[in-house]
Design brief:
The complex is a heterodimer of chains A (224) and B (197). Chain A has helices at 9-16, 22-34, 36-55, 63-75, 99-102, 213-222; strands spanning 115-118, 121-125, 137-143, 152-154, 158-164, 166-169, 172-175, 179-182, 191-192, 198-204, 208-210. Chain A is α+β, with helices and mostly antiparallel strands.
Amino acid sequence: MNIRHHIGDDTLMAYVNGTLEDALSVVVATHLAICPKCRRSVSLMEDMAGLLLMETEAAALSATEEAMADMIPNRAHPEPHAQDRSSRTQDYSNTGVPMPLAERMPTSLDDIPWRTLGPGVSHYPLPRASAQKVKGTLRLLKIAPGKVMPEHGHSGRELTLVLRGSYIDDFGRFQAGDIADLDSDILHQPVADTAEDCICLIATDAPLKFSGFFSRLLQPVFGF
Amino acid sequence: MTSPDGIRQDRTGTRALPEELDKDLTAVGLDQDPSAFRRLFANLAPRLKYFMIKGGMIESAAEDVMQDTMLKVWRKAALFDSSKASASTWVYTIARNVKIDRLRKEHRPEPDPEDPCFVPDDPETGEQAVSRKQDRERIQKAMAMLPPEQMTIIKLSFFEEKSHGEIAEMLDIPLGTVKSRIRLAFRKIRTELEGLK
């Protein structure tokens, strides 16, 4: 896979320090699974955080806390080596998408019950990880070949990961594995540009804003 | 002792060399060596606690996160691989995940190398396979080159785990400025790292 569009450092850092919204984190983790370059950036950021941790002052510990140094080795059992990663209960290998996304999908990418939004455009909102009301949206979007999406901007951050096919907008051509990391002040108008449907995973931390008059008619469908 | 930010400090706190931490963590992983764990604890526990209080936690919550983290360090040490990460980096990621799990109900999504869709790293060339020690020193040097306004944001992000929005509010600068300073900081760090090879 030849990835040309990567995650912005500001987004990546929010992922690393755990402040990135869940929906956006799913897209970031899905891209990381297929992008060694962005994983190297994550390692660099974690190394920096580790260095900062060791440079900090030392807080005073209570006697109970001090006692943990002996208590833990005496009482707690180490986990057997294999337990950590392979403790997964479900097999996602047939979904055809990396695990961070597969965990949120009800079925494989081929069997998604698409909901039509308009001619040539359908979507499927993915369920949220937790029942609690959280900001942002996570959805799959399918654009038919040649279909021009309404020009839109964002009131927050939008991450788009191409899963299949490709599209072109003002920023270039985005193919499978590429991620578009867009900020609020940016307007774009993607066009699916191959004979194949373009399937994307899109997360926002706030609703989309459409700019044109006709596009705004679509707002109720897109921007919830 | 109390630090300027009101956190009670331990002046006798030890500060081991990074290589010693790597060695001790490896010893815990291989042999469940209790004295190696005690040394790790003496180095890490007081800093983890400071880190969490600095990040806005009340003292009792910071204690919980510290204890939970140290317990996981003991239990998962066999997974530590000193050729892949420093002990400090590895412990940081554990502490961060403990903290996230406390704040949110769900786990943070993460890539899994066992995933059939996972694209592994390119095999390292001899040139790339620098030792952890060199890596650490290079990163430290590169960080030292950052202008103060960029370093402040890096510290607030990693050290206090503030979101971009919180940082913008704290420093009274636009959100876009926070993001562009982060991007500039990393561009600079990467350039420095290239130059330090």
